[in-house]
Design a protein that fits this description.
By secondary structure, the chain is of the alpha+beta class. It has three domains: 18-33 and 179-257 and 474-499, Periplasmic binding protein-like II (D-Maltodextrin-Binding Protein, domain 2, 3-Layer(aba) Sandwich); 54-161, Dipeptide-binding Protein, domain 1; 261-470, Dipeptide-binding Protein, Domain 3 (Dipeptide-binding Protein, domain 3), CATH 3.10.105.10. Helix content is 32%, strand content 22%. It contains 16 helices and 21 strands. It has helices spanning 2-21, 43-52, 100-112, 147-150, 161-167, 219-227, 242-247, 277-280, 282-290, 294-302, 331-340, 356-370, 383-392, 409-416, 430-439, 445-462, and strands at residues 23-28, 57-59, 65-67, 70-75, 81-86, 125-132, 135-140, 181-187, 191-196, 210-215, 233-235, 251-257, 261-266, 307-308, 347-353, 375-381, 397-402, 465-470, 472-478, 481-482, 498-499. A seven-stranded mixed β-sheet has the order 8-9-10-1-11-19-12, with helices on both faces. The chain has a six-stranded mixed β-sheet with strand order 14-18-13-17-15-16. A four-stranded antiparallel β-sheet has the order 4-5-7-6, covered by helices on one side. A hairpin with a 2-residue loop joins strand 6 (125-132) and strand 7 (135-140). Helix 9 (282-290) packs antiparallel against helix 11 and helix 10 runs antiparallel to helix 12. The chain is globular and about 65 Å long.
């Protein structure tokens, strides 16, 4: 009898092993902010949402828009209405049906909820019509070219209306979406756990049973945990560690150029802190830019794997404004500008997230700018806290990485439009606003590029953001993991991934 009991226990363990082996332990570079698509701001939050929340549409690796919860779409003749056919048989994690009414609820929530970070992205949408249970129409007062691309991200993520109504602004404590994985628990600064949703519309292609997201701010610690077997995959591998990972047969390496940027946002009109030397003087901002060697920063911080840039898209992007190229470092001119500004040794308080890359960039900027006369004082701050400071204007200068959007408008409008949610600098230039709005009114890329050229001439003269670099997204992962594909938005598509 005892032998039979032992045999039964052994067999039970063996049966359980494959499921246990399908737990993916994922290393994040930060702890996300609110797990609510309407309120969220962080890149790592978007990584978690990739598992939790399907969107109306997604992007392919070449940035083309592809179906997800919407299977097809069409524009009206006047380009003022986007009609979308929805995927049948989709349910939210609470069993509620996904339909056109749910889409209407989500778009309206994004537009009206207090503290919404999606408000600016969807500002052009004037109303949402439920045509039938599986057809929805988004209406705009004027043509709005970026709308479809906007719906490939958090603005297109769908939460359960029932859960949204019940939890209100506490939705982030127990998010309910329609993605391949459902929320299990969150322990702040320690882990976020999700499990496979058996009712998922594409469950046959979901092989992982569980994902544990764990934040490790230090890139060295993150990699050490991967090498020791405590993690199966990590995002934002340090560029200096890439050669060693590529030589390690136990690991695999992935990379792709991002569609975002690293920059220094400067408070020029957000709050009283805009009265700082750098906030109140264009010449001092120009001097700071001229003190920087972008290629040197790339080499020191990213082992040369980041692309120097001075705009919201990389110089390799078809929408880069070639008429305003990357300026070369000129310390002598920087010193002259500071002299003209009457402040040869300005003090700049620089807020930086505590992530490895951001800290390292801040230190290199500090050293380079010192040669021109700047006294850069670094204030390292936990990432979500730094975003709150940016929201309030509680900073003079702030190192911020933006992960980017498929349409350049997503890198531009919300940061430079008057009173937009991500306008941390406080810039409000009527001429710039007119240009930004005009760029949204047509799908003709020649006209849009002309508008962006006008925007570049204003933004790069006022310098509310000093753009510096465009990173390569770098991943390292266990060689036993298959099905991973690189996307330029830096996000994971967990469907299709498997641990052998």
């Amino acid at each position: 009898m005892l032998k039979r009991s032992l045999l039964a226990a052994l067999l039970a363990t063996m049966v359980a092993m494959p499921a246990a082996a399908q737990t993916l332990r994922f290393g994040l570079a930060e702890d996300p902010d609110a797990l609510d698509p309407t309120l969220a701001r962080t890149f790592v939050g978007r990584v978690v949402f990739s598992a939790l929340c399907d969107k109306l549409v997604d992007i392919a690796p070449d940035l083309s828009v592809v179906p997800q919860l919407a299977t097809e779409w069409s524009w009206s003749a006047d380009n003022k209405a986007l009609t979308m056919k929805l995927r049948p048989g989709v349910t939210f994690h609470d069993g509620e049906t996904f339909d056109a009414a749910a889409v209407k609820y989500n778009i309206e929530r994004h537009k009206t909820m207090q503290g919404s970070q999606r408000r600016g992205e969807l500002s052009a949408v004037t109303s949402v019509d439920v045509v039938d249970p599986l057809t929805v129409r988004l209406n705009t007062a004027a043509p709005f070219a970026p709308l479809l691309a906007t719906l490939t991200d958090r603005a297109g993520m769908m939460i359960s209306p029932k859960a949204g109504a019940a939890l209100g602004d506490k939705f982030a404590t127990a998010p309910v979406c329609a993605g391949p994985f459902k929320f299990v628990e969150r322990v702040a600064q320690d882990r976020i756990v999700v499990e496979k949703y058996d009712g998922y519309w594409n469950k046959a292609n979901v092989h992982l049973q569980r994902i544990e997201f764990r934040p490790f701010i230090d890139a060295t610690v993150r990699l050490a945990n991967l090498r020791s077997g405590q993690l199966d995959m990590l995002e934002r591998l340090a560029g200096t560690d890439a050669p060693a990972v590529q030589k390690d047969k136990r690991l695999k390496f992935g990379s792709i150029t991002e569609i975002g940027y690293y920059g220094i946002t400067i408070n020029i009109a957000k709050s009283d802190k805009a009265k700082s030397p750098i906030g109140s003087s264009q010449k001092i901002r120009e001097a700071l830019e001229l003190s920087l060697d972008r290629q040197g920063i790339s080499q020191v911080v990213f082992d040369g794997l980041a692309i120097p840039g001075n705009q919201w898209v990389a110089p390799t992007n078809a929408n880069y404004v070639k008429a305003v190229p990357v300026p070369k470092r000129d310390v002598a001119k920087a010193k002259q500008l500071l002299k003209e500004a009457g402040n040869p040794n300005p003090v700049v308080n620089l807020v930086t997230p505590t992530t490895t890359d951001a800290r390292n960039i801040a230190q290199v900027v500090q050293a380079m700018a010192k040669e021109a006369g700047f006294d850069i004082r670094i204030q390292a701050t936990e990432f979500a806290t730094s975003l709150n400071m940016a929201d309030k204007g509680d900073f003079e200068a702030y190192i911020l990485a933006w992960s980017g959007r498929p349409d350049p408008d997503g890198n531009l409008y919300s940061f430079h439009g008057c009173k937009q949610p991500l306008n941390y600098s406080g810039i409000c230039n009527p001429a710039l606003d007119e240009i930004l709005n005009d760029s949204r009114l047509t799908t003709d890329m020649t006209q849009r590029r002309k508008a962006w050229e006008g925007a570049a001439k204003i933004v790069l003269a006022e310098r509310p953001i000093i753009y510096m670099l465009h990173r390569k997204w770098l991943w390292a992962y266990n060689a036993k993991l298959t099905g991973f594909k690189e996307y330029p938005d830096g996000l994971l598509r967990f469907t299709g991934m498997k641990l052998s």
